[in-house]
Automatic annotation (TrEMBL):
Native organism taxonomy: Bacteria, Pseudomonadati, Pseudomonadota, Betaproteobacteria, Burkholderiales
Name of the protein this chain belongs to: FAD linked oxidase domain-containing protein
Organism: Caballeronia sordidicola (Burkholderia sordidicola)
Domain (FAD-binding PCMH-type): residue spans on this chain: 42-223
Keyword Transcription regulation among record annotations: no
GO process annotations (BP): respiratory electron transport chain
Flavoprotein in keyword set: yes
Listed InterPro entries: FAD-bd_oxidored_4_C, FAD-bd_PCMH, FAD-bd_PCMH-like_sf, FAD-bd_PCMH_sub1, FAD-bd_PCMH_sub2, FAD-linked_Oxase-like_C, FAD-oxidored/transferase_4, Oxid_FAD_bind_N
Entry keyword set: FAD, Flavoprotein
Cofactor(s), by name: FAD
Pfam families (UniProt xref): FAD-oxidase_C, FAD_binding_4
Signal peptide: none
Listed GO MF terms: catalytic activity; FAD binding
Family stated for the protein in its record: Belongs to the FAD-binding oxidoreductase/transferase type 4 family.
Length: 482
């Protein structure tokens, strides 16, 4: 038996004593659901999957892992897109799943906060807020299965960033288990607290490499009285940008969502999900899904929206539009947007990019990068959609019709990634807007970050996790930091 296997054996025995046998999974049929990432791009092995029931059990597990020198992979709902919650193939790492820690600890409707454990499902938090006539503004496609701990660890975005910000902006305080097994209680529901370094923001977006988030105080907002949702047809991404500027002038902070969908994106949806109808009588180059949230009245929201659309059509920005007249139609509009990734999967493997550029550059970025890719790979099909209101594009490349998708990926993925990332860099953007780095984009991130930035990141990692046991090989390259 190797030294690593010996450490793992004694570690697992100690965990069974500390957490109970039912909460230490070692059989392959029990651990399998925790070992493959959401997109099935990565699969690892583990010495055990731990299911702690409270913060003190997490702390105990971390102390045991440190004692036995067992690397830790924290995991929430396992819905990530970059392999950040998947162990490596060695079998020496332990997965600590927070899914049992799913309680909503408190809700304060005067302070407009909700205190939740890291394993709480996002949709459950939304529902609990709604019961108190409050809005928890984070919303994304995986909300029925993703957890708030994972959302915080990746600083998830979603569809309402334009008005409410990323997960970071929605968080006021954290509870964290450090790599030493200590518990930092930072569950303060304060909007003003200038008493030193902002530890909260350090852990948000760190993907479990600096500690394990076990609970959080999250912001709530008054529930909107009305939502006005519409689809607008336009010629180009540049027209969508001009429309966005007009919408901001008219609606200001009432503008909650502004999603861009290319014609081919919607074509894939209506092809693979024929029950979802194309919303216009003729095809258009781009479609925008926009939503206003009004705290005054539905009549006020619809009147404001009417003035916006009148001006947009007078300016020649919008070619056609349809406004949802019921909750079911609102859901149908959003379903079109949310089914784009599912339709892509039905069409076949594709080259995905979760990138961001300054909002004002989106039109130029798409036009220039589309042209470069078309020149390099004739016939390729572009699936461009995303959160235009915050500069985040899912800029995906589908093989030409009739081309084997597997072969397409094998031949072109590296060169297409390089081309897209060079363009992103040229436009002063980011190669990861909301999915995190995980293990998918570590080398690319190191290529585009400055030496100063990398040294600062390594210094933080060294200071907080000198033994490099917290989610190694994620965010930073797998090396003993020094």
């Amino acid at each position: 038996m190797t030294a690593s296997n010996t450490r793992s054996k004694y570690f697992v025995e100690a965990c069974i004593e500390a957490l109970g046998a039912a909460n230490v999974l070692t059989a392959s049929h029990d651990t399998a659901p925790f070992l493959t990432d959401w997109r099935k791009r990565y699969r690892g092995e583990t010495c055990a999957v731990l299911l702690p029931g409270d913060t003190q059990q997490v702390a105990r597990a971390v102390r045991l892992a440190r004692e036995h020198r067992v690397p830790i992979v924290p995991q929430g709902g396992n819905t990530g897109h970059s392999g950040g919650a998947t162990p490596d193939a060695s079998g020496a790492q332990v997965v600590i799943s927070l899914r049992r820690m799913n309680r909503i600890r408190a809700i304060d409707t005067i302070n407009n906060t909700i205190t939740v454990e890291a394993g709480a499902i996002l949709a459950d938090i939304q529902t609990r807020a709604e019961q108190e006539q409050r809005l928890f503004a984070l919303s994304l496609a995986a909300e029925g299965s993703c957890t708030i701990g994972g959302n915080l660890s990746t600083n998830a975005g979603g569809t309402a960033v334009l008005r409410y910000g990323n997960t970071r902006e929605l968080c006021l305080g954290l509870e964290v288990v450090t790599p030493q097994g200590d518990v930092w209680d930072g569950l303060r529901g304060l909007r003003k607290d200038n008493t030193g370094y902002d530890l909260r923001d350090l852990y948000i977006g760190a993907e479990g490499t600096l500690g394990i988030i076990t609970a959080a105080v999250m912001k709530l907002h008054p529930a909107p009285v009305a939502r006005v949702t519409a689809l607008a047809a336009l010629k180009s991404p540049q027209a969508a940008l001009d429309f966005f500027a007009t919408a901001q002038r008219h609606a200001g902070p009432l503008l909650t969502g502004f999603e861009l969908m290319s014609d081919f994106s919607l074509h894939l949806v209506t092809t693979h999900f024929p029950q979802m109808r194309y919303p216009f009588s003729a095809r258009h180059g781009q479609t925008v899904l926009l939503e206003l949230s009004d705290n005054e009245s539905e009549a006020h929201g619809r009147a404001l929206f009417g003035r916006l659309m009148e001006q947009a059509m007078e300016q020649g920005l919008v070619e056609d539009a349809v406004v949802a007249d019921s909750l079911s139609q609102t859901k149908a509009f959003w379903n079109l947007r949310e089914h784009i990734p599912l339709a892509q999967a039905q069409e076949g493997l594709n080259i995905k990019h979760d990138i961001s550029v300054p909002i004002s550059s989106i039109g130029d970025f798409i036009a220039q990068t589309d042209a470069l890719i078309a020149q390099a790979i004739p016939g390729v099909r572009m699936v461009t959609f995303g959160h235009l209101g915050d500069g985040n594009l899912h800029y995906n490349v589908q093989a030409a019709e009739g081309v084997d998708p597997q072969g397409f990926l094998a031949e072109y993925q590296a060169s297409v990634n390089a081309l897209v990332y060079e363009q992103v860099n040229a436009f002063h953007g980011s190669i990861s807007a909301e999915h995190g780095l995980g293990q998918l984009k570590v080398s690319e991130a190191m290529h585009y970050k400055s030496p100063v930035e990398i040294r600062l990141m390594r210094a933080i990692k060294t200071a907080l996790d000198p033994e490099n046991l917290m989610n190694p090989a994620k965010v930073l390259p797998d090396a003993r930091v020094s």
